[in-house]
Amino acid sequence: MTRSARALLEKIQAELAPRDGDNRLVPSIAAGRAPRAVFAALAAEEKLITLSDWRSFHALAARADEPKARAFFGGLAPGEQQANAMLDALLAATGPDHGKELPRAGCQAYPAYVAWLALNGESGAAVAGIFANFAAFGRYCRDVAAAMREHYRFTDTECAFFDFFAADVPEIEEQALAAIQAGLDARRLDPAEARRYARLFQSYELLFWNTLADEFPG
To answer: Are 213 and 25 in contact (CB under 8 A)?
Structure first.
């Protein structure tokens, strides 16, 4: 019997769910406890991340043998470029990032792993690993965007980066499911490998937020 892409994603997300709450920065921001300087750091680190991920997604698309995987990665790349430009208004509002370690290794581990996947990852498993974490990242961004307006009085333009990633985009989910299903049908996608990618993505994602939580305690 052919395995279902949706069933695989749901299983992976269920395995990840208990750790989604390990993010210590977002609750601090949501409560208005984090210092305003954290947004300068977020913007500066994300400026580097989006540029790196833009290149990595193009590389993943170029390496993918399966057309549906190429479509998924190729569709993500323009979003990274768009999000990168959205950070300019936030950077202008916050001023420079005065952190002692710039960029922060704990924040840049995430895009380094995406770049590793661009060279080494199996396409279908990489799609599953990346997309399995989208829902949690979207929730983090929704909470941050709401708090930016309520507690920190940022404008809509200054919140645009987080609004962008908080939005549901059904087309991306459809592309992800199609790419994962194609990998399963071709017996090229190893579910264990997909789970390993997803677990590492979650770990690097949490490392990003918690690196800043340690530097900017609230």
So the answer is: yes
Phi, psi of 109 (to 5 degrees): -65, -35
First and final C-alpha spacing in the chain = 51
**96 φ, ψ (degrees, to nearest 5):** -70, 155
Q: What is the pLDDT along the chain (218 residues), one digit of tens a residue?
A: 347 999 999 999 999 999 999 999 999 999 999 999 999 999 999 999 999 999 999 999 999 999 999 999 999 999 999 999 999 999 999 999 999 999 999 999 999 999 999 999 999 999 999 999 999 999 999 999 999 999 999 999 999 999 999 999 999 999 999 999 999 999 999 999 999 999 999 999 999 999 999 999 98
The C-alpha R_g of the chain, in whole angstroms, comes to 17
Tally of CA atoms within 13 A in the half-sphere of 192 that contains its CB: 0
3-state secondary structure of 68: helix
Q: Which of 137, 172, 181 is nearest to 13 (CA)?
A: 137
Structure tokens at 84: 């990168």
| Cα–Cα distance for residue pair 167/9, rounded to 1 Å | 19
Q: Is the peptide bond before 103 cis (omega within 30 degrees of 0)?
A: yes
Give 24's DSSP letter. Answer: S
